[in-house]
């Protein structure tokens, strides 16, 4: 089922994507809608499953986790299922996605230092062949709605 959204809905998504703590009144002022109309639209976006959750953007370096590492894994035989069942043993993994191509899975990990990286590699070898890349910086994030023609059509951004 295709969900049809209008420019107000796209603009609300853009605003919430930037800051999900804004009040309905603040969002409404930004898009020229009343607080109640904005609340109704946000609730509808939740009800139809477009908005799945509200979350925070954590600066892990402030918590002592200074390495962001992408680990791609090729699994041996049927070790993929075993790894998925044991994923809770890897609290360092903050995102894990099944992918196509040479690797079966990609995991984003937050680690303290290079010895922590070595430790997780040693633990992953039980399941398959890990290949690691250390993230140097974050270039772009959260721009999906910034260039949305549906949002720009009404608001001229």
Q: How many β-strand stretches? A: 4
Shape: elongated
The main sheet comes to: 4 strands, antiparallel
Oligomerization: single chain
Number of helical stretches of at least 4 residues: 6
**Poorly predicted sequence stretches spanning 5 or more consecutive residues:** none
The helicity comes to 25-40%
Supply the helix-strand structural class: alpha+beta
- Could you spell the SSE succession in H and E letters? HHHEHEEHEH
Query: Distance between termini?
Result: 29 Å
Q: Radius of gyration from the CA trace?
A: 20 Å
Give the overall pLDDT as a whole number. 90
Walk across the major sheet and give the strand order. Answer: 2-3-1-4
Q: Give the strand content.
A: 15-25%
Give a structural overview.
By secondary structure, the protein is of the alpha+beta class. Helices cover 37% and strands 18% of the residues. It contains 6 helices and 4 strands, in the order αααβαββαβα. The protein has helices at 7-18, 24-31, 35-47, 79-85, 114-124, 149-155; strands at 67-75, 93-98, 105-111, 128-134. A 4-stranded antiparallel β-sheet has the order 2-3-1-4. β2 and β3 (105-111) form a beta hairpin. α1 (7-18) crosses α3 (35-47), α1 (7-18) packs across α6 (149-155) and α2 (24-31) crosses α3. It is elongated and about 55 Å long. The model has no long low-confidence stretch (mean pLDDT 90).
């Amino acid at each position: 089922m295709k969900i049809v959204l209008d420019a107000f809905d796209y603009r609300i998504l853009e605003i919430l994507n930037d800051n999900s703590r804004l009040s309905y009144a603040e969002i409404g002022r930004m898009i020229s809608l009343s607080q109640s109309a904005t609340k109704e639209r946000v609730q509808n976006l939740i009800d139809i499953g477009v908005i799945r959750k509200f979350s925070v953007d954590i600066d892990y370096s402030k918590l002592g986790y200074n390495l962001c590492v992408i680990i791609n894994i090729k699994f041996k035989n049927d070790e993929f299922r075993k790894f998925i069942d044991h994923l809770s043993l890897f609290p360092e993994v903050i995102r894990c996605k099944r992918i196509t191509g040479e690797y079966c899975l990609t995991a984003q990990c937050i680690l303290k230092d290079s010895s922590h990286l070595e430790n997780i590699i040693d633990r992953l070898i039980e399941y398959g062949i890990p290949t690691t890349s250390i993230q140097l910086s974050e270039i772009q994030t959260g721009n999906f709605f910034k260039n949305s023609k549906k949002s720009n059509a009404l608001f001229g951004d």
